Hints:
Largest sheet: 4 strands, antiparallel
Oligomer: single chain
Number of helices: 8
Region (Disordered): 41-99
Distance between the termini: 33 Å
Order of helices and strands: HHEEHHHHHEEHEE
Amino acid sequence: MAPSPTAAQRRVIAAADPVTGRLKGTDAQLAALVKRGLAFRHPRPPHDHFLTPAGHRIREAPARDEASSADQPSSPDTGGVFAARVGGEDPAPDGGPARLREVRSAWQGLLELRRMTHSDGVTDRPCGWERTHLVPAAALALEAAGHTPATGDGHGYRVRATPQPEAVAVYEPDERALRACAATLERAGWQVGEHTEPRSGERYLLASPRRV
């Protein structure tokens, strides 16, 4: 797990452009933020640096949250303090207003990441970060659309990795909710197909980030 950003790095994050997330800092500071998954270097000249969704989350967190998270490890999924809920977390996740704000902020940051990293500036298809973080990316799309992650009783969605390249499996015991998950992922730029487990007969989705 990557360590939390230093006080100096947090100041760089706090000073980022409020709309684009563009960063200013020394080469060492920017490289360190990239290493932690909190920033990315734009592939096109002048190769500016911008916040990732995790970086946006840290910038927008209240000061008390920043203080309390200083001694906490970063999320292994997103590189920051926000972690997408893939379903099956223990204990059951809190779905209160604070969580809704976190999810909304992370989703908006991800859309901005799409815009900045696609050469045509579109936000309707996944970006490179999503292709290397398939499970949290799909889970974020679902949670941001209002779907409920699975808890101990088994109800809700579960996003899991698969042996197939660039594909995740989405399980939801309610068939109507499963179809709703498929529609959400398609709107978020994923290619989705419905399949059946040969042994259990359970229906599930196989989803891959759309390239065009």
